[in-house]
């Protein structure tokens, strides 16, 4: 299972950077790389809560998406890649509470990323 996850992460690292209208960009590779420490928690692989390293990475990612364009890019990336990595939606939506994150992106399978502010 870890080999499959590693291969998927490597493939996602090759995703082209999406550039927003204001020049700010977040790549799916950046997002996936930041969430690597959260992998076991997000896919439900034997852990009940995220690790300290996961929370630190998630907080760093949250700081990285400082503009509306970047938050929308993050949302779109998570919607596109989450299912392919086997992310459990309930675990993803619980990450902000566990890590005490104040995020402006709703975590749901039905988020309209274009409405994020």
What's the story with the biggest beta sheet? 2 strands, antiparallel
Question: Termini separation (Å)?
Answer: 36 Å
CATH superfamily: Plant lipid-transfer and hydrophobic proteins
Strand order of the largest sheet: 1-2
Oligomer: single chain
Organism: Dioscorea alata (Purple yam)
Protein name: Plant non-specific lipid-transfer protein/Par allergen protein
What features would you describe in this structure?
It comes from Dioscorea alata. This is Plant non-specific lipid-transfer protein/Par allergen protein. This protein has 6 helices and 2 strands, in the order H-E-E-H-H-H-H-H. The protein has 117 residues and is mainly α. The protein has a single domain (23-115), classed as Plant lipid-transfer and hydrophobic proteins (Hydrophobic Seed Protein). The chain has a two-stranded antiparallel ribbon with strand order 1-2. Helix 1 runs antiparallel to helix 2 and helix 4 crosses helix 6 (89-99). The longest helix is centred in the middle third of the chain and has 18 residues, at 68-85. The chain is globular.
Give short descriptive properties of this protein.
two-stranded antiparallel ribbon; Hydrophobic Seed Protein; 2 strands; 117 residues; 3% strand; globular; mainly alpha; disordered N terminus
Task: Indicate the topology.
Layout (H helix, E strand, L loop, with lengths): L1 H12 L4 E2 L5 E2 L1 H8 L3 H4 L9 H13 L3 H18 L3 H11 L18
Antiparallel strand pairs: 1-2
Helix pairs in contact: 1-2, 2-4, 4-6
């Amino acid at each position: 299972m870890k080999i499959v996850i590693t291969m998927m992460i490597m493939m996602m690292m090759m995703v082209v950077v999406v550039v927003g209208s204001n020049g700010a960009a977040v790549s799916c590779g950046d997002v996936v790389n930041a969430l690597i420490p959260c992998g076991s928690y997000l896919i439900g692989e034997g852990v009940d809560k995220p690790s300290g390293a996961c929370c630190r990475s998630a907080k760093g990612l949250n700081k990285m998406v400082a503009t509306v364009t970047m938050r929308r890019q993050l949302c779109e990336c998570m919607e596109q890649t989450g299912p392919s990595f086997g992310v459990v939606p309930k675990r993803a939506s619980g990450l902000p509470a566990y890590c005490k994150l104040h995020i402006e992106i709703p975590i749901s399978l039905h988020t309209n990323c274009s409405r994020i502010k």
